[in-house]
Write a structure and sequence with these properties.
By secondary structure, the chain is α+β, with helices and mostly antiparallel strands. It has a single domain, classed as Alpha-Beta Plaits (2-Layer Sandwich). It is built from three helices and four strands; from the N terminus they run E-H-E-E-H-H-E. The chain is globular and about 30 Å long.
Length: about 100
C-alpha cells in the first residue's frame, strides 16, 4: 500500500539553511523508490493558519517512507531544514 510524506513549511527562519537543504535533498532521495507528487506549487489554505509551501512524496509503502526519512543521507540533510524553517511532516498510508 502506497504511503505519502507530506511536508508543510510553516515559516522560514534562515533562508541560507533552506537553500543548502534544497541543494542537497535530491542526493538523499537517490536509491529510494520515491515520486515527488507536489513541491511548493500554487496552493490555497482552506482551513487553519497560512503555510509557505507543501511537498508531497509518494513511496510504495509506509516502511519504505520511514526508511528514507531515517536514512543516514536524509538525517544529515534534514538538519539544514530543521535550522532553516518550522515544518510539520507526516507519513500517511494510502487506501
Amino acid at each position: 500500500m502506497a504511503a505519502y510524506i507530506v511536508f508543510t513549511r510553516e515559516s522560514t527562519r534562515d533562508a541560507a539553511e533552506l537553500a543548502t537543504y534544497s541543494e542537497q535533498v535530491g542526493g538523499a532521495l537517490e536509491g529510494h523508490p520515491v515520486a515527488v507528487l507536489a513541491a511548493y506549487g500554487r496552493h490555497e489554505v482552506l482551513e487553519g493558519p497560512d503555510v509557505e509551501g507543501v511537498v508531497i512524496l509518494e513511496f510504495p509503502s509506509f516502511d519504505e517512507a520511514k526508511a528514507w526519512y531515517d536514512s543516514p543521507a536524509y538525517r544529515a540533510v534534514r538538519e539544514h531544514r530543521f535550522r532553516g524553517a518550522d515544518y510539520r511532516a507526516v507519513i500517511i498510508e494510502g487506501l
